[in-house]
Amino acid sequence: MGQLKEKYQRFKHWQKRPYEYHLKSDEVQHCKNCGNDFTGNFCPICSQRADTSRICWRSVHQGVMDIWGLGTRSLLYSIWQLLLRPGHVISDYIDGKRQVSFPPVKMLFIVTLIYSFVIYWFLPDVVHLSSGEENLGEFNEFYLWYKSHLSWAMLIIATFAIIPTWVMFRYSPRHTRHTIPEGFFLQVFMQVIGIVLTFLLTPFDYFGPDILSFSSNFAVMAYYVIVYKHFFGYSLWGTLWRQGFVLFCGLFTLFIVALIAFPELYNNKLVNTPSNNISYILGWIALLLWPLMVLGFGHVINKIATRIRARRQ
After folding, report:
1. How many domains does the chain have?
2. pLDDT band at residue 25, thresholds of 50, 70 and 90?
3. Which of 165, 179, 228, 302 lies 20 to 30 angstroms, CA to CA, from 237?
């Protein structure tokens, strides 16, 4: 038990440790691109690497790998970091360590592209697309759009949690008063984590689609809690109840927008009835105001909890 505890403590220490750069040589280098003499790994004038050599098979390999983000700032390295130290690597990126991570928006599009290709061509039973005989009813148009625009759909879904996160976590011990653009990149990273976890858990489809759905949703929600806890620095309970407000407001707003964009999702006979237009409009306004009211209530509770924590400290 003592050895396991010691290994866990070492792992936690490693999680919090940012990426470290090492100087390859302290000798004066001559840049083959701009002719500048410098000391370091990269030329400060044109950014070319100091160890640039003649084109060889390694150069060919590097050029091909760069197309899919497997070269410099490796995509696989960034995904590995997101799985093992999710909140900390996102925190490093927000703090300005941009070169240690693959560009997050580009990573989201590449990951969804690979996921869609593998699932739809090699594992069609996972999403029940092999026969093409699914009867989705009123959800058919929405599902077809989501399936054919997965990258954009994930990016849009990510945006619905930005404002709730900004409101509920703006007084956090870490990243206090984080900005909305920072929240955007936080949500993009989290969408990448969700897609990767869903892909890794596809073997659970062997036990049935319900087992796959439960396991993937549970893993994604658990990682979301870990990311928020590491990124913002609240306790487990403080993270959970604040995330509850974020989840409710984000999902409810997404539901309303889906109803507006795809009216086929519901059967409302009041739409074409002129005498009921006012009631119809007031109903939509009430639906749109409801998540704002819940978010405002959460904001008040958050401020009270922040004051109590400040007094205890």
Report:
1. 2
2. low
3. 179
Is residue 105 included in any domain, yes or no?
Answer: yes
12, part of any domain: no
Residue range of the domain that includes 36: 27-67
88 lies in the same domain as 213: yes
Residue among 190, 307, 294, 286 at smallest CA distance from 245: 294
Share of the chain above pLDDT 90, in %: 16
Whether residues 120 and 257 fall in one domain: yes
Scan for tokens 């929240």, then name that residue: 183
Within a 10 A sphere around the Cβ of 105, how many other Cβ atoms? 16
Residues 33-86 have pLDDT tens digits of 888 888 888 888 887 877 777 777 776 766 666 665 555 557 888 898 899 888
Q: pTM of this prediction?
A: 0.77
